[in-house]
């Protein structure tokens, strides 16, 4: 019997997304929708005339005649706006903020080739472009725009905020410093020698692509759960590869999601988001992380290097990925009062 291409496709899909039950505890609700909030797809240009895709969220019955504070929201590294960012944007919109979630350049519905490329400068620029967008909405008060970055976007938002004082308040959740991660690994688990090998491999891959070879992908989340998978790999797998958080944007495939390209990943090696983080003061910063998170070091480091006013808020018994979608663990009330108090 000849297998039709479509049947083969479905079989392949079944292999990468096992039906195994995901952990939905503590109100995991990544795709939450609010009856009170309108969502509108938007797009806008960066300073380099590339298109960023996003969603705009606002209270349905809000009078359009008063200007309101706004918050832009960035998704975890390797994710897209449908993962975690829309959830946070919706919850903040319920509280009366106008919010925007964005796909960072090269990811999701935002422009950029090759897909899944890394460019920390363009990622940060997308946050400033979101401020441009919000600032041209008649319902938004230009003096009251804040930002929220989840995981890698925490570091991209800090990078943007250093150059963009129009971002008046900065919050992060489960922050990953993608620069430090790429140079040293988690908890300095990567040696200088290993870094040199990675850099050499990326440079070699650049020759391959120059000569017409295929784009290669790296890191990200395991496509198959192996018996030897680490606790961190399992934590990400439960979100990105199961119904709990899986999302494949148009034009991508389930196998490619979360994986940056190998030849561009090393752009992060030159990314030092916390250098000069103190210059963001006196704009307030709030760092939120789970006290069980494998990524604790990044929030601790940012907090210690930032100047006042700053706050480090530990969510007890929460891990890194828990703050992507577990609505009973994410301190939405804390975020609301932070932005209400600082966007005045
Ligand atoms: C599910 O996730 C929660 C939150 O991280 C954790 O406390 C719990 O142990 C997990 N349950 C299982 C069965 O892994
Ligand atoms: C909003 O402003 C317009 C004119 O600027 C006015 O016609 C309209 O009645 C106002 N709506 C509300 C709800 O105040
Ligand atoms: C939705 O709006 C209603 C009416 O204002 C309010 O009572 C309710 O608490 C809101 N729900 C959420 C989840 O914000
Ligand atoms: C884990 O197991 C897979 C096969 O299931 C193997 O390909 C991979 O190299 C192993 N990884 C490590 C770190 O041992």
From TrEMBL:
Q: Under what name is this protein listed?
A: Xaa-Pro dipeptidyl-peptidase-like domain-containing protein
What Pfam family is a match for this entry? Peptidase_S15
Q: Residues of the signal sequence?
A: 1-21
Gene Ontology MF annotations: hydrolase activity
The GO biological-process annotations, alphabetized, read as: antibiotic biosynthetic process; monocarboxylic acid biosynthetic process
- Provide the family line: Belongs to the polyketide transferase af380 family.
Limits of the Xaa-Pro dipeptidyl-peptidase-like domain: 66-206
Q: Which InterPro entries match?
A: AB_hydrolase_fold, Polyketide_trans_af380, Xaa-Pro-like_dom
Arranged from A to Z, the UniProt key words for this protein are:
Signal
């Amino acid at each position: 019997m000849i297998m039709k291409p479509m049947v083969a496709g479905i079989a392949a899909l079944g292999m990468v997304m096992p039906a195994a039950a995901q952990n939905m505890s503590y109100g995991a609700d990544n795709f939450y929708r609010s009856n009170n909030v309108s969502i509108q797809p938007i797009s806008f240009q960066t300073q380099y005339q590339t298109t960023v895709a996003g969603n705009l969220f606002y209270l349905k019955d809000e009078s359009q005649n008063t200007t309101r504070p706004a918050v832009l929201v960035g998704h975890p590294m390797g994710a897209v706006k449908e993962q975690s960012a829309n959830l946070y944007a919706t919850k903040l919109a319920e509280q009366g903020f106008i919010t925007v979630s964005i796909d960072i350049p090269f990811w999701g519905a935002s422009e950029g080739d090759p897909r899944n490329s890394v460019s920390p400068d363009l990622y940060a620029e997308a946050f400033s472009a979101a401020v441009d967008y919000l600032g041209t909405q008649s319902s938004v008060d230009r003096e009251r725009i804040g930002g929220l970055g989840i995981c890698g976007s925490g570091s991209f938002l800090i990078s943007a905020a250093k150059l963009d004082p129009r971002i008046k308040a900065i919050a992060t959740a489960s922050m990953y410093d993608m620069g430090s991660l790429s140079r040293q690994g988690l908890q300095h688990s990567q040696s200088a020698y290993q870094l040199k090998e990675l850099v050499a491999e990326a440079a070699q891959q650049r020759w391959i692509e120059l000569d017409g070879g295929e784009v290669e992908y790296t890191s990200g989340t395991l496509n198959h759960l192996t018996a030897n998978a680490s606790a961190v790999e399992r934590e990400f797998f439960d979100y990105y590869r199961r119904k709990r958080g899986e999302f494949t944007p148009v034009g991508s495939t389930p196998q490619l999601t979360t994986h940056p390209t190998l030849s561009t990943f090393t752009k992060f090696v030159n990314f030092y988001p916390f250098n000069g983080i103190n210059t963001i003061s006196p704009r307030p910063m709030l760092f939120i992380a789970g006290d069980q998170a494998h990524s604790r070091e990044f929030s601790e480091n940012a907090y210690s290097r930032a100047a006042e006013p700053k706050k480090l808020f530990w969510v007890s018994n929460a891990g890194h990925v828990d703050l992507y979608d577990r609505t009973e663990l994410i301190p939405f009330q804390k975020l609301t009062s932070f932005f209400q108090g600082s966007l005045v």
